[in-house]
Structure formats: structure tokens, C-alpha cells
Amino acid sequence: MRNRSNSIMKVAVLLIAAALVFAVVACGAGKKDDSTPKNNNDIAGTWEQVMADGIETITLYEDGIYVSDIKLNGGSSMHKQRSFVCKDGKLTVHYPDYGTDSSYDVQVKNNQLILKNGSSTVVYNKK
Q1: What's the confidence (pLDDT) of residue 7?
Q2: Is the domain of 109 the same as that of 87?
Q3: Domain range spanning residue 59?
């Protein structure tokens, strides 16, 4: 009788362990990727990129205004205002001075704004 109780107890422990593993896996499977911004609000803020020849600071406003300030190591600087739209992980920036748009895959992870366009990747840090 004692062996049978031990066997039943072992089976019960295994079933509980299996149920816990299933619960953990099921909870993780339903998570969405929070790093993919859905709209302008998800990337709004001030971001900074340190370049070899200076620093670029961009401010993205919820209303689609994109302000870029570049300060080069030699002392010169540039200020540009553009417009942008962020939708479902895609960022499109309109460059009126060039009469063109550029599109990027965009992610926000660990206080970084990551823009990818083909083989090129630019990373901005939250300021």
C-alpha cells in the first residue's frame, strides 16, 4: 500500500510540474513585441546620436513635427525642421529641402530609438 501511495504522489508532482510549465509557456506566447511603435506617440521625445564628427539631436513631436539639430566637432551646426509619420513599426520622414521621403523600420528598446533602412542602422539614445 505504501508503494502505491508513493507512486500516486510522484504522478501528482509530475502533473503539477507539467501544468506549471504549460502555464508559463502559454503566458509567454501571447505577449506582443512592445519594441515596435504603433504611432507618433510611441516615439515622441528627444533623442541623441553621437557621430564621429559631432552630435545629432532630434525631437519628435506627437503632431508629426521632426526637429534635427546637428553640432559638428568643428563648431558649425545645422537646424532642420521636417515632418514624419510613424505607423506600425515604419517611420517615414519627409525631407522638404530634398523633395523626398525616406522610410525606416523603427524599434524602441532600452531607451534607444533604432532606425533601419536596408543595411544601414542608426541608433539614437533617449535624452
Answers
A1: 58
A2: yes
A3: 40-126
